[in-house]
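task queued by scheduler; priority normal; single chain, no ligands, no partner chains; default sampling; output format set to structure tokens
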Amino acid sequence: MKRLILAFSLFLTTPVFAGEITHKIVDSVQLTVDGAASAATRIGSSYSVSGSNIDVTTLGGLTAPASATAAATQIQGSYDVNTAGQAFSFSESFTVGDAVSNGTTVTSGVVSSLPSFGSVTTSSGGVAGSLAGSLSATGVPTVTAGGAGTQAVAQRSVELSVFK
């Protein structure tokens, strides 16, 4: 009987593990204001002429610019039909290149002036305005909308883990 009581008492004194409990709360607010950007590509001056049955008196072309920031200009050519009464073709093309400009001006995230280049892509930046975000002890984060080009994201994440 003593052995049975001893065995039973060992069973009762064995520790019981309830496991581990982890509780995590993460609050966050993210505020973003887009930046202004501009990408520009200057194009050069070009001149071309082609034809058949054409007499070239003075060949047209380009004149070197007066300064490193100016564009080349066109030299006027002089052309005439070579053999009167016969078929002819003539084509002349001139593209005025870009002069160097002051570029893009950005004031308070707004693009107020653009470069005058052949190819320009411009994105106006955001304006923070009244953009705001806050965390509170009640667990309800708040955000206030800003101006154009802004983003506000608030989040509360709750995690409960029980390990056995």
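post-processing summary
- DSSP finds one helix and 14 strands in the chain.
- The CA atoms of residues 20 and 27 lie 23 Å apart.
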